[in-house]
Structure formats: structure tokens, C-alpha cells
Amino acid sequence: MGKQATEMLKGTLEGIVLAILAKRSAYGYEITTWLREQGFADIAEGTVYALLVRLEQKGLVGVEKVPSEKGPPRKVYTINAEGSEYLAEFWRTWGFLAERLEQLRDNNNTSSSAETSTDEGRGN
């Protein structure tokens, strides 16, 4: 993943993790593994754990300690009502931004096509 994708991911990772938790409860390593399976190979486990702590501090997730067969209990995270509201707002914002970016791209493609046609018409 390039630097630009990494920076974009930083801005959306909270929403992505909440979307994962909206499907089912999970612990940090499960979330990291799923993200990597989805192509986010460069995501550090520490990044996910730090994010989960922030989500907990913001009151967007519930946490339950579940015994583990290997080592200390695991913290299992579940989205709560506030987290669901936050996620709904994330999706509204994402939709707004995606629409505007599509419009911008379409306008740029139309402009580029028009410029190319004009240039071709001039014999350039």
C-alpha cells in the first residue's frame, strides 16, 4: 500500500473497524487479520489496538474480557448504540464524499476528453 493509501486509511479506519464490529463482536487480532485478508497488508496490529482503545474511550464500543486458551483473557469489542450512530454518520459522510469525488473525476474526464477533441480538431 502506498503512502497516499496509508494516509487515506488513517482517516477512515475508525469507520472501517466499527463496520466490522457492526457485523459481529471481535478482538483486536481478529480485526487485524480480517483487514489484512481484505488487502490492507501493511496495517500494524498496534494501530488496530490503539484505535480500539480510542473507540472505547469515546464510548463507541463495549468491551468484555473473555478467557483465552492461550494466555491472558482477550478483550472482545462490540459496537454499542453510540457506535452505531457514529457509524451511520460515517456512512453518510462517506457517501457525500464519494459522490463529490465521482463528480470531480467525471468532470475531469469530460474536460480531458473535450480538450483532447479540441486539440485534435486543431491538428495538435
UniProtKB/TrEMBL annotation:
What Pfam families does this protein map onto? PadR
Listed InterPro entries: Metal_resp_DNA-bind_regulator, Tscrpt_reg_PadR_N, WH-like_DNA-bd_sf, WH_DNA-bd_sf
The region called Disordered is annotated at: 105-124
Source organism's superkingdom?
Answer: Bacteria
Compositionally skewed regions (Low complexity) per UniProt: 107-116
Transcription regulator PadR N-terminal domain mapped to chain residues? 17-89
Protein's name in the database: PadR family transcriptional regulator PadR
